[in-house]
Amino acid sequence: MLRFGTIGSGWIVDEYIHGAKDSGLWQLTAVYSRTAERAQAYAQKHGARHAFTDLEEMAASSDLDAVYIASPNALHYSQTKLFLEHGKHVICEKPLCAQADKVAELQQIAEKNGVIFLEAIMFLHLPQRKILEEALGKLGTITMVKLDFCQRSSKLDSYLEGELPNIFNPALETGALMDLGVYCVYPALALFGKPDSFCADAHMMKSGADGAGILTLRYPDKLVTLTYSKLGQAGANSDFQGTDGTLSVESISRVAGISLWRKDGSTEQLFGDEEKYKLMGWEAKDFYRYITQPEASSQEYAHCCQLSLQVAAFMEQVRKQAGIHFASDKH
């Protein structure tokens, strides 16, 4: 087994730890938090031997091979760079960085140091993605695609009461596009490539963060619309509409609830759902495979890196058009 540490202590880290352990490939040896009390409590909760409050000390530790980073977006670049430069493999939560040049720099550091640097985006690693892609071939000519991830934030009420939760704080490089829109951008670019043109609009909040957005991608033969929001709950699925049928996906982020609707009116359910920790476990399995089987997985890993860079560059362009600005932006 490989040994890993974690940065962050939210529910998403709990799920990743559960999934990594469940894979039988990973052993949790270290956790990090800003306070000793929090770090020790989290280490005890998950059975880690080491509780760090100093990232430099953690990165230099000989007791871990890799790290899972789930800190606020604005910290991804500096924390990832630190661990890559210390020869540690890194899987970092989406989005990697707000600027594509930072993603490219981190990828170069990883290559120089002979380590794996992976974005934690479920879509690329779920086996049901193959079910989705095969079903797309049964739709005839696809002319319209709607990708939706609208989920009312659990932090919205506190924001409305005058507080400033991390997710609505642009200083942390967050907002609807970075948090939820990325789950729509990934399948759009992975399945159809870079569009000929696009049109982006955002609903901006008083904090300066985008609370919701609409993005239309134009291809020679189709339109792909992306809708995402932290302000309300969606009631409609994502779907892929073709001349011979429609593929409905209840959750594009989980690639769950896949149903094929044929033009003759018949329907077929192709895939249901899995628990969150199992979904994240697929990421952990591929991360392990890229590390331990570098030659066999080199093309697959290279594709992941290329797509991460493409997504970062595209989302940076989207933010510019939609008027979503961060302090770290050069423009």
Poorly predicted runs: none
Q: Taking Cα atoms only, what radius of gyration do you get, to the nearest Å?
A: 20 Å
H and E string: EHEHEHEHEHEHEHHEEEEEEEHH
The percent range for strand residues is 25-35%
Estimate the helix proportion, in percent. 25-40%
User: Kindly, what is the distance between the CA atoms of the first and last residues, rounded to a whole number of angstroms?
Assistant: 45 Å
The largest sheet is: 8 strands, mixed
Classification by helices and strands: alpha/beta
* Overall body shape: globular
Lateral strand order in the biggest sheet: 8-9-10-7-11-12-13-14
Beta strands, count: 14
The number of helical elements comes to 10
How confident is the prediction overall: mean pLDDT? 97
Q: What descriptive keywords fit this protein?
A:
about 325 residues; six-stranded parallel sheet; 10 helices
Quick take:
With 331 residues, the chain is an alpha/beta fold. The chain has helices at residues 11-22, 36-46, 55-59, 76-85, 100-112, 128-136, 156-160, 176-192, 276-292, 298-322; strands at 2-7, 26-32, 50-52, 66-69, 89-93, 117-120, 142-150, 197-204, 210-218, 223-229, 238-242, 245-251, 256-262, 267-271. It has ten helices and 14 strands.
Q: Helix and strand layout, with pairings?
A:
Blueprint: E1 2-7, H1 11-22, E2 26-32, H2 36-46, E3 50-52, H3 55-59, E4 66-69, H4 76-85, E5 89-93, H5 100-112, E6 117-120, H6 128-136, E7 142-150, H7 156-160, H8 176-192, E8 197-204, E9 210-218, E10 223-229, E11 238-242, E12 245-251, E13 256-262, E14 267-271, H9 276-292, H10 298-322
Parallel strand pairs: 1-2, 1-4, 2-3, 4-5, 5-6, 7-10
Antiparallel strand pairs: 7-11, 8-9, 9-10, 11-12, 12-13, 13-14
Helix pairs in contact: 1-9, 4-5, 5-10, 8-10
